Amino acid sequence: METVLVTGGAGFIGSNIAEALVSLGHRVVALDDLSTGKQENITCLQQKCGEAISFYRGSILDADLVKGILRDHAVTRICHQAACPSVTQSILDPVSTSSVNIIGTINLFHLAAQHGCRRIVFASSCSIYGDTERMPINESVPFRSKSPYAASKAAKELLAGVFSGLYGMDIIGLRYFNVYGRRQDPASGYAAAIPSFITKALKGETITIDGDGKQTRDFVYIDDVVQANIKALMLPQVRSSMFNIAYGEQTSIIDLARIIVDIVGSSSAITHGATRAGDIRNSLADITSARAALVYAPLYDIRRGLAETVAWYQQASRSEVFA
Fold it and tell me: pTM of the prediction?
């Protein structure tokens, strides 16, 4: 049994990883400042997992807090999901985004090295690639970040290389493409198209797409992302590296909206708005490296993943989680 610190543990991705770790017999310490994470996610986890999960409200910038958690809980591995996740917010306030995403990561890596943690897995992003004509995108594609958020993710990867080299830790970065699924907040700045479209479709409201809708994304369901994190955390043969985590198929935003409307059986109209600043045009991942090194095997194509997601939002809307 391992004790894993999950930063951002009250968030969409972090809470799902925490729940999966406990189901596999590990202990979890969740750290979240609740700026974007949800207290109800923690409450749900504690009801399901009991004493196998502990929660601390606080920031990865708080060195004393992080140091105390690592020491008091004898943390052996870290799953680092905490971040300021919004591209738009990073353009409006690049200093705050950089502070949490870069300085917070330095703080975590440094304290983990002092504590003797054996492995860190952290969330990177496909946004580091920016716009590229090379499709599918493999991990050797040069960075062409288009926002402070994307640049902060690239900085985290550079820091991972430095700290793994200095201290001999395994630090593994997962370059998420467009993650979706249960517990994703429609009001979040992170990849909010799917939860926004679903909640509007459930209400029969108009769905507004940024731009012409022909931009494409490689959408990856939350259970596949959880799978990748668990394997990166626990497989003994994995060493410091960066991996694309996606499904490996392109879907246009207009097709995404149409699939959601069809699954819901909604009367929602689809319209178009302004293009979002900092957005990339097309995205498609090459996941060959993750398949080989992590034994990563995504199971959810876009329609299956959306069907699961719609079912969760229907239940959530009945319980007024996102009313």
Answer: 0.94
